[in-house]
Every structure is written in structure tokens, then in C-alpha cells.
Amino acid sequence: MEEVYEKLLELWGRERSEPGLQKIEEDFLDTLATYMGKLRRQLRLSEKDSLNASLKSAELQMMGKLLESVLRIRFRKISEAALRQEQLENLLPFEKKTMEHIMRALSFHEAKVRNGIHNPKTLYAEEDEKLEVVVFLRDFPKFVGEDLVSYGPFKEGDVATIYHSNAVALAQKKVVRLMKLV
Predict the structure, then answer these.
(1) Nearest alpha-carbon partner for 138 in 122, 154, 117, 149
(2) Percentage of residues in the chain with pLDDT exceeding 70?
(3) Which site from 14, 83, 106, 164 is most exposed, i.e. has the minimal number of CB atoms within 10 Å?
(4) DSSP readout, 106-157?
(5) CA 94, 97, 98, 101: dihedral to nearest 10 degrees?
(6) Confidence of residue 128 (pLDDT cuts 50, 70, 90)
(7) Residue 112: per-residue pLDDT
(8) CA 74 to chain centre
(9) What is the CATH architecture assignment of 2-117?
(10) Residue 182 pLDDT > 60, yes or no?
């Protein structure tokens, strides 16, 4: 299974030298997990002070460090792409969520900056994510809330929980009525 180590080392080299995210096949991650599990089992079964145990331990540690380095390099690429508002290919499923969270945080930051330009006092205020319960007074199409999540569409009489600023804006337009909860 030296080929697993070699493939991981090759991936690490490509990830370091190429600008975009490198494709990581799911079967490679499965093979890597299987191999690392096999090394752990062999390590548990071998005598602690043996040369074999030392070699297996060193190999396992090196593979862990290589994988961690690959994932950190990828995170840096994802963060930089998010700042440039670029889309990336070859994201792993958890990296897609990471990208969404970073984009959401950047959007929140930009909104705070825009609001701060109009009222600098808001830049110092810490805000809790306040939610409001509202009832829709008329049909209303799907919209994107301040948290960049899509809400709706809504029918007259629907009750929903949305962010305070969205609720206030819709109430001012007489689309919703804020509900007082007891």
C-alpha cells in the first residue's frame, strides 16, 4: 500500500503548486481511510518498543500531517476565492459548506460597513440575531433574508419566523404584521 502514501504525497505537491483546488476522488479518500485504519490496527497489535511499531507510527503521523497540510492549503485557496467572490471547482462536500459560511460572513461584514457609512454608531454595537414571528397579510414571493437564506413563498395568513430587520422592512410595506408572543 505504499501507493497510497505516494498518491497522498503527489496530491500535496499538486495542491501546493497549482492555483486551483485539485480533484480528490472519493475512492482515494476511502482507500486512505482504510490504509490509515490498517496502520492503526497494526500499531495496536505490535509491541510498543519494536522497530515495526516505530515505523508504522512514523508513517501514520506523516500521512496525518500531509493530509492536514493538504486541507489547510485548500482552506487558504477557498478563503482567497471567497474574498474575490470567485466560484471554485473540486470542492469536497464539507468545503462547499465552508465556502457558503465564509461568503455569508463576508456579506454580513459588507452590510455592516454599508450601514456604518450611514450611521457610524452601528459599527460599535453588538447585535444579537433577533428573530421575529410574523403573519403575512398578503401573498408574498420568495425572498432572500439578511442571513442569505431563501424564505417563502408565503400565502396570506402564513406565520413565519424571520430576522428582525427583514420583519421590520416587510411590516413597513404592510406585507406582514409582527406578532407579540406572551
Answers:
(1) 154
(2) 96
(3) 83
(4) HHHHHHHHHHHHH-GGGGT------EEEEEESS-B--EE-TTS-EE--B-TT
(5) -160
(6) low
(7) 78
(8) 12
(9) Up-down Bundle (1.20)
(10) no
**What type of residue sits at position 110?**
E
Phi, psi angle pair for 152, to nearest 5°: 95, -170
Q: What is the mean pLDDT of the chain?
A: 89
Which residue is it, cell 477557498? Answer: 78
Delimiting residues of CATH 3.40.5.50 domain(s) in the chain = 131-178
The letter for the amino acid at 67 is L
Per-residue model confidence (pLDDT) at position 152: 87
Q: What is the pLDDT, as a whole number, of residue 60?
A: 94
Within the chain, all domains assigned CATH 1.20.58.1030 are found at 2-117
Place of cell 500531509: 66
Residue 59 DSSP label: H
**CATH class name, domain 131-178:** alpha beta
